[in-house]
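For practice. Supply one:
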Amino acid sequence: MINFTPPNRTKRRKALGSVPTTKQKIYEEGDNFFHPITALDESSWLTNHKTGEQSVELYSRCNFNPIQKQKRNKIYLWMIQSRVQNTNAPDLNIIVEYLTAFYYPTTVKTLECDKELKVTSRMHQGHRQLLVPDILDALQKIIPQDAYCLIGVTMVDLYPRDEWNFVFGTARLKDRVGVFSFARYQASFYDEHEKEDPNMLLYRSCRVCSHEIGHTFSITHCVYYNCLMNGSNSLEESDQRCCQLCPVCLKKLQMCIGFDEIERYEHLLEFYSKYENIFAKEKAWVQRRLAFVKQ
């Protein structure tokens, strides 16, 4: 087990670095917006995976690919065709809507491709699983010329190598490809008699999509706050992760995309309002945050 010590307020501020006077409120913690990581149990991600601190300064020195004013400027999603599929897939069009707001003003679209991937698979604890490296290799061969990244999505469970039980998703940062599975976000994955909640599946799917795409922007797992970019070892831990980027991760993404932070929040609010029956908590959060930063 790894002895992880959560960064204190001083370290969190140092990780953020300097902020222009005109944007102080945007990147300020404020009250009850961003919660620092506190107590961890022995099953949590940070006590089982060595995760380094990626400050904004470190991010600025890494090999991230700025998307603004580049020819490779579109995010593509592709629903992977497989003989092992599931009809309970969430609506990919709504996920594209969400990602369009989350990664504003980047274009997000689905990839039209009827190719069926031939990848290594195995049975594990009663479920079919697909081998991640095989999928990523295949994605590299079909990534469009104008793609910032290509993300494969599947309803089949994933595993990265033989020693691992599973993985929710993963990405190759430099190769601009990633994959994630919605399999474990279904109630029926754990109990075939359990009734599915399509709204919960869509909510979880949006969250994991935005998390994995964040990695293609070279943003590593966050250790500073309860943040969308936190790692997770289980569905329970994933559900505890919020849907928003903390100040440190938001600043990294802004460096890469070049958006207006307030406009981005407004686009998210528009999406959350449209699907308020699913994202009521997120709508309330963004409304409070916009009121705070506009003071």
Summary: DSSP finds ten helices and eight strands in the chain. The beta strands are 74-79, 107-110, 121-124, 127-131, 147-154, 157-159, 169-172, 177-181. The two ends are 44 Å apart (CA to CA). The first helix runs from residue 9 to 16.
